[in-house]
Amino acid sequence: MVKRFKPSVRLTENDVTDEAIYQDRRRYLKAMGFVGASSLLAGKANAIDWFSDDDESSFKGKPLDFSVNENYRISETKTPYEKVTTYNNFFEFGTGKEDPAEYADEFNTEPWTLTVDGMVEKPFTLDHAQLLNKFELEERIYRLRCVEAWSMVIPWIGFELSALLKEAAPLSSAKYVALQTIERPEQMRGQRSRFVGGGIDYPYVEGLRLDEAMHPLALMTVGLYGKTLPPQNGAPIRLAVPWKYGFKSIKSIVRITLTDKMPPTTWNRLAPQEYGFYANVNPQVDHPRWSQASERRITRGGLFSQERIATQLFNGYSEVASLYKNMDLTRFF
Ligand SMILES: Nc1nc2c(c(=O)[nH]1)N[C@H]1C(S)=C(S)[C@@H](COP(=O)(O)O)O[C@H]1N2
Ligand SMILES: [Mo]
């Protein structure tokens, strides 16, 4: 039998979140005039089970039909299912890492539609079933590097964003794609309150240059660990762009619009000096208030046994380098 133990003292959010991020969040809340930011110190007991051992029978969701893409089978230790699904950023449900898993049961992803429109010849809308059935699904194991300097290794299931965009036949004048998360305040507590939702103006929006969006690495993701996505991970469909900081991998997408103008993006709008449009993972370009040279890799074991590893340019996906060959990545961060 596997020996387990639980920490006798429950961790607070302040213990779990990197200090810089914690201060960052307080600073925004203060700047926006929320009083009593010190009350954040009294975060609730943390629900993350850092010591769990994965048991496949506990994986939630509907099993998917997919093939394994061997090109993306990396040998790094995968992040356990339990952590992938309980340590999340999804501010629509709250700013705490454990909030999405706790509050996303209120989120009903049926019915769902995803529309692709804008500068295209053939705009279209897919329903929930079509999102899972229209394209051949494959499993790819990707690294996910959050701008907060932690990272995971996740087996996603999905299809290339380029396949979706090609269906719409983009016009040659289209230069960017704008992506948008659902707006459903009655099911998303963070959209009902600026305090709970971290001061973000919802809906959450993201964007890519069209050539980035057409890169084979950009994956529309409908599942993880063999099953449909849990709501806290962005059900029923989210983006995975593994060479960029995690905030570019927008969740629960309802609309993708092709445009000729660089679209606004949520974190850039909130703090333009700290979060750029490109947000390519880059150990040489520090966040103004913390280093990006290394990251905390979340695998097995507790919070304090996690390994600190060197961050790689483009998160190790050097095949994207040609997209940026004549760009100063310090200026276009
Ligand atoms: N709509 C939406 N998408 C989002 C976020 C969010 O708050 N809202 N957080 C982003 C951030 S900061 C990260 S690190 C990843 C986290 O994905 P995960 O919870 O599946 O690991 O989702 C990204 N996508
Ligand atoms: Mo993130």
Automatic annotation (TrEMBL):
Listed SUPFAM superfamilies: Oxidoreductase molybdopterin-binding domain
Cofactor note: Binds 1 Mo-molybdopterin (Mo-MPT) cofactor per subunit.
InterPro entries: MsrP, OxRdtase_Mopterin-bd_dom, OxRdtase_Mopterin-bd_sf
Keyword terms: Metal-binding, Molybdenum, Oxidoreductase, Signal
Cofactors named for this entry: Mo-molybdopterin
Catalytic activity: L-methionyl-[protein] + a quinone + H2O = L-methionyl-(R)-S-oxide-[protein] + a quinol; L-methionyl-[protein] + a quinone + H2O = L-methionyl-(S)-S-oxide-[protein] + a quinol
Annotated Oxidoreductase molybdopterin-binding domain residues: 107-267
Family of the protein in this entry: Belongs to the MsrP family.
Subunit annotation: Heterodimer of a catalytic subunit (MsrP) and a heme-binding subunit (MsrQ).
HAMAP family xrefs: MsrP
NCBIfam families per the UniProt record, alphabetical: PRK05363.1 (NF003767)
Function description: Part of the MsrPQ system that repairs oxidized periplasmic proteins containing methionine sulfoxide residues (Met-O), using respiratory chain electrons. Thus protects these proteins from oxidative-stress damage caused by reactive species of oxygen and chlorine generated by the host defense mechanisms. MsrPQ is essential for the maintenance of envelope integrity under bleach stress, rescuing a wide series of structurally unrelated periplasmic proteins from methionine oxidation.
Name the UniProt record assigns to this protein: Protein-methionine-sulfoxide reductase catalytic subunit MsrP
Organism of derivation: Alteromonas ponticola
Organism taxonomic ancestry: Bacteria, Pseudomonadati, Pseudomonadota, Gammaproteobacteria, Alteromonadales
